[in-house]
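Incident log, support desk, overnight shift.

02:14 A customer reports that sequence design results differ from what the structure should imply. Their input is reproduced verbatim below. On-call engineer (initials T.W.) acknowledged and began investigating.
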């Protein structure tokens, strides 16, 4: 009957024990290292956009509105 009174504590202790056991028995991940370093080619030119158009006059802007 005493065990029923402390069921929450028993559950918390069992969950903590299961968590600790899970972490203690887990195998560490294996690291895969490349045999030779790979050098990435970087494009140093920056793409630019050139806009060649005439500007609108005040009268043309007013006509658009």
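02:41 Re-run completed on a clean worker. Output:
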């Amino acid at each position: 009957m005493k065990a029923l009174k402390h069921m929450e504590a028993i559950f918390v202790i069992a969950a903590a024990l299961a968590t600790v056991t899970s972490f203690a028995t887990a195998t560490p991940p294996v690291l895969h290292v490349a045999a030779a370093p790979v050098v990435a080619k970087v494009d140093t030119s920056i793409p630019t956009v050139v806009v060649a158009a005439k500007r609108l006059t005040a009268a043309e802007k007013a006509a658009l509105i």
